[in-house]
């Protein structure tokens, strides 16, 4: 039994079952036993590999995108470059290296990283030690000083807690984690809810519905709508809202039981991009996309970038670059499932990569 399971059991014994969003939050971000708080989950020896860890091209192209947006914003003397959940700091390091060629932009940037994990924060400090720009760390977006913003969140939103509801004969119930026969198990809250928006009453018993209420998205969108700028949200997910259970646990590159290793497996849920766009718009921001990751990276010029890198590469390196290009853009790899949504200040107008 993991230390976090022991803690969750005692919570359930005294207070009753806990909702799925609370369970997810405890598993990922518990201050002592949370998955991200206690380890570096990335890379070949970790549990999963993210786009910036696949290839430097990913961060470089996002850096170039940020530079174009900065020009659209009027080439300001100061801009906050915010990253939510920066992992090992690889994306930001690659992005900043790529924009060194634009000294005015490089000089305008101050980096703000939002990170809950002390382990990853230390890795980010190392990755950005020679970046040549001021870097500050924050627990939440609220802490970042005001000002025009360019932001990026790669595989961050999938780690934010979701709520789940399950249909029974008497209506919809909040889905929770409780104890059944002394084992952690999914249970339905005893009281049915009156109804759910958009549900016609014809969905079968047992259907699961997910809802996300992403506070970081609301805060970021509000900031962008009021103070200017744009953000890229990159993640795996779907463009339209729908029914179904998308919660998954991954441990050592394999799917694991959702309730089996609390705190020791990565828990994520597919991002409902329609819901994220809706939150952003309610805060006064405009949204662009979502585009598939493959399409977005092609529009930013990933093929030309790969060709340039290959020009100075050994045969083995060239093969690795081709493999990384396919991994990031091919429809049967990350190219289709991963999507890119931009949240922007309506005053910016058409946005690089989306409308041009
Ligand atoms: N963007 C990185 C890492 C993705 S993993 C990459 O692409 O490689 C998710 C990241 O979000 C980790 O850095 C994790 O520690 C951080 N994180 C998860 N939940 C968070 C929260 N509620 N607040 C801030 N950071 C969080």
What's this, in brief?
The chain has 356 residues and is α/β, with parallel strands linked by helices.
Description:
With 356 residues, the chain is an alpha/beta fold. Helices cover 36% and strands 24% of the residues. It has a domain at 36-160 and 212-302 and 336-343: Rossmann fold (3-Layer(aba) Sandwich), CATH 3.40.50. Strands 2, 3, 4, 5, 10, 14, 15 and 16 form an 8-stranded mixed β-sheet that branches. Strands 1, 6, 7, 8 and 9 form a 5-stranded antiparallel β-sheet that branches. Helix 5 (56-72) packs across helix 6 (90-98), helix 9 (215-227) packs across helix 10 and helix 12 runs antiparallel to helix 13 (315-329). The protein is globular. It starts with a helix and ends in a 12-residue tail after the last strand. S-adenosyl-L-homocysteine is lined by residues 28-29, 36, 42, 50, 52-53, 85-87, 91, 114-117, 120, 154-156, 159.
Overall outline: globular
Q: Tell me the CATH superfamily of the domain at 36-160 and 212-302 and 336-343.
A: Vaccinia Virus protein VP39
Give Rg in angstroms: 21 Å
Determine the strand fraction and express it as a percent band.
15-25%
State the total count of DSSP E strands: 16
Q: Cofactors and ligands present?
A: S-adenosyl-L-homocysteine
Distance between the termini: 53 Å
**CATH architecture field of the domain at 36-160 and 212-302 and 336-343:** 3-Layer(aba) Sandwich
| CATH class categorisation of the domain at 36-160 and 212-302 and 336-343 | Alpha Beta
């Amino acid at each position: 039994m993991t230390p976090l399971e022991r803690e969750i059991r005692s919570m359930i014994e005294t207070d009753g079952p806990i909702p799925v969003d609370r369970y997810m939050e405890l598993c990922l971000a518990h201050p002592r036993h949370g998955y991200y708080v206690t380890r570096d989950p990335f890379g070949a020896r970790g549990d999963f590999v993210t786009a910036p860890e696949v290839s430097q091209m990913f961060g470089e192209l996002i850096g170039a995108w940020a530079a174009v947006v900065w020009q659209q914003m009027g080439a300001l003397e100061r801009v906050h470059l915010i990253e939510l959940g920066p992992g090992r700091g690889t994306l930001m390091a690659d992005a900043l290296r790529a924009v060194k060629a634009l000294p005015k932009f490089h000089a305008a940037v101050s980096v703000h990283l939002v990170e809950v994990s002390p382990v990853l924060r230390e890795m980010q400090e190392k990755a950005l030690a020679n970046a040549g720009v001021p870097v500050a760390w924050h627990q939440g977006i609220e802490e970042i000083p005001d000002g025009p913003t360019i932001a990026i969140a790669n595989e961050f939103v999938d780690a934010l807690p979701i709520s789940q509801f399950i249909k029974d004969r008497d209506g919809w119930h909040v889905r929770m984690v409780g104890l059944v026969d002394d084992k952690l198990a999914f249970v339905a809250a005893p009281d049915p809810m009156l109804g759910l928006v958009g549900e016609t009453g014809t969905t079968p018993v047992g259907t699961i519905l997910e809802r996300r209420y992403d506070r970081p998205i609301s805060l970021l969108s509000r900031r962008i709508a009021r103070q200017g700028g744009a953000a890229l949200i990159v993640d795996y997910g779907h463009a339209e809202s729908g029914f179904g259970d998308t919660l998954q646990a991954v441990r050592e590159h394999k799917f694991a039981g959702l309730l089996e290793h609390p705190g020791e497996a990565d828990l994520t849920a597919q991002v409902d991009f329609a819901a994220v766009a809706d939150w952003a718009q309610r805060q006064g921001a405009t949204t662009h996309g979502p585009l598939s990751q493959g399409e977005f990276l092609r529009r930013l010029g990933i093929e030309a970038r790969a060709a340039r890198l290959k020009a100075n590469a050994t045969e083995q390196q060239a093969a690795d670059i081709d493999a990384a290009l396919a991994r990031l853009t091919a429809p049967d790899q990350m190219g289709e499932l991963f999507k890119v949504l931009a949240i922007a200040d309506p005053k910016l107008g058409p946005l690089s990569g989306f409308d041009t």
